[in-house]
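Design a sequence for this backbone.
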């Protein structure tokens, strides 16, 4: 499961610096909602999958989810397009924060 916690973390970390309690609360609330959506997306099929009996042999720099690792292990194509994404405002803010940090 890839819960995109790093995106939410950057946004949540920025809130106190801006003295923005509403942003902090919104980020926390929507992270929990997103994590539930992500969990539901993967768990329905995952628990019955024989992948749970496989060793983890993934080596790489990509931060792919366990579901994607298992798909690759079983010779299937990784499916990055259909997994849920964080809310657009979180992804946008994350990109802005990272861009600003890179320019410092």
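Sequence:
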């Amino acid at each position: 499961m890839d819960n995109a916690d790093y995106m939410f973390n950057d946004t949540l970390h920025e809130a106190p610096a801006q003295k923005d309690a509403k942003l902090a609360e919104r980020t926390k609330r929507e992270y929990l909602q997103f994590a539930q959506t992500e969990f539901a997306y993967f768990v329905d099929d995952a628990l019955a999958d024989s992948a749970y009996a496989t060793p983890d042999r993934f080596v790489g720099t990509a931060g792919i989810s366990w579901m994607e690792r298992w798909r690759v292990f079983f010779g299937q194509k990784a499916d990055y397009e259909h997994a849920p994404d964080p809310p657009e405002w979180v992804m946008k803010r994350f990109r802005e924060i990272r861009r600003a940090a890179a320019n410092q």
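DSSP finds four helices and no strands in the chain.
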